[in-house]
TrEMBL record:
Biochemical pathway: Carbohydrate biosynthesis; dTDP-L-rhamnose biosynthesis
Cofactor: Mg(2+)
Identification of the protein by name: dTDP-4-dehydrorhamnose reductase
Domain of life from the UniProt record: Bacteria
Swiss-Prot/TrEMBL keywords: NADP, Oxidoreductase
Domain spans labelled RmlD-like substrate binding: 11-296
Task performed by this protein: Catalyzes the reduction of dTDP-6-deoxy-L-lyxo-4-hexulose to yield dTDP-L-rhamnose.
Molecular function (Gene Ontology), one example: dTDP-4-dehydrorhamnose reductase activity
Record's keyword annotation contains NADP: yes
Family (UniProt): Belongs to the dTDP-4-dehydrorhamnose reductase family.
Organism: Litorivicinus lipolyticus
Transmembrane segments: none
Entries under PANTHER family matching the protein: DTDP-4-DEHYDRORHAMNOSE REDUCTASE, METHIONINE ADENOSYLTRANSFERASE 2 SUBUNIT BETA
Amino acid sequence: MNSVVFSPPSVLVTGASGQVGQALLQAFDQAGFNVTGMSVSDMDITSEASVMAALSAVEPDFVVNTARFPDVDKAETEGDAARRLLVEGPINLAMGCKQTGATLIHLTSEYVFDGDNGPYKEDAATAPLNLFGHYCREAETEIEAILPQHIILRVGLVFSADPRRFIGKTLSSFRDGKVLRMVSDEVGTPTSAPDLARVITAQIRQLDLGSTAFGIYHYGGGGSASWFEMGELVYAQALQREDLPDDLLQPIRGVDVPARAPRPLDVRLDCDRLLQNFGIKRLPWRSQMIQIVDQIYRQSGE
């Protein structure tokens, strides 16, 4: 009896040194994928030649683009640099994938919405309030026009165990006795990087087996929160593990933060389409964050 042997997909991850990129590399390796991670020193996505050289060398079946401009506020003052990374880079990747036959999975932002009508479905009207969101939406439309085999994945407020990111920086500030003021009136859909990697892994498995469920999707952990509410959970977990003052976290309105780009007030994401087309369920963000805080303390020996 003949049996069909499936070879594992080859996946190239951009932005591999970031929190999402690192989570993807780990998840893809565990899934048995042939994975190649690239940071800007390996491939400059804003350079068409660099992209084509990388794609020709790796010959991936899938490209997952996690590279993004790192600061929403700086995008307002460094618009040219932001547009190169947020728009021109994805265009180069889409063109390269079109030439090589790869599928592009592009991670983008909930900031394509104005925050007046959350939770948002994928086909809801977009109306970005800041340049970061505007460039994200521009990239989405360009990818849709260039490459049929694409997944555009809008994700919420991402967190991870990366010490350079939200949880690690928050814990470090608490330990230094610094009072943190976090925005309390802007609500989104928190998403752990490992959970996001789980979702993308499941999508790639199904696409590799012949699914054609391309298009725009939303993903975030179950539930919603502001950055202040996320900070409250980190604080509560920290207070259970070490002796800290109990007055280090304060709420602030987004409009009261100096020199800050405008943000939408409610960018909760409706993720039902992902469940309907891929059968992927959401995991509660709170349990994910508690696990990550616990991981950080275990790794530090506390």
